[in-house]
Amino acid sequence: MKKVNIQDERIVSQKRKIGSDAFGIIYFGLIVSILLQQFMFDASFSQYAAEFVLFMVAAVYIVVRNIIVGNNLFGDSFNGQKMVIINSLVCGITITAISTTLNSVNYGLEKMGGSTGIALTALFTFTSGAFVSFIGFEVLYIMNKKRQKQIDDKYNDAGE
User: What pLDDT, in 10s, does the model give residues 99-122?
Assistant: First the structure.
């Protein structure tokens, strides 16, 4: 007869949380490694391609799996739209900060047109980054809501 080990739900939950935290650390480490190699060490793409591919695969996997199972990625409908806008603005600010800092370090203030040139470049970078991010987050938001509606309809039809 086969021996079956019964595990306490708290232990299983703690093990899953530890695994999730470890994944978060590795995921964050991948993006730091990519950014350092790309901008600080001026490495060619082939030197950090493996990290980039793993980062992108993990990102796509997380989003797709959450959409498939119907997890709400953005919260309730009003809060969800607000989160799309907030995420877009944060992405725009992050892209602008990294890009402007690295450009001013690499090219200098004079080549960038002084403080006016830097301000205009930063404004354009922020606007472009936030807009593209908004489009991406909005598409994910719509896909997520559609999937949640499909799941709700499936269970509502089954219950009747």
Answer: 888 878 777 777 777 778 888 989
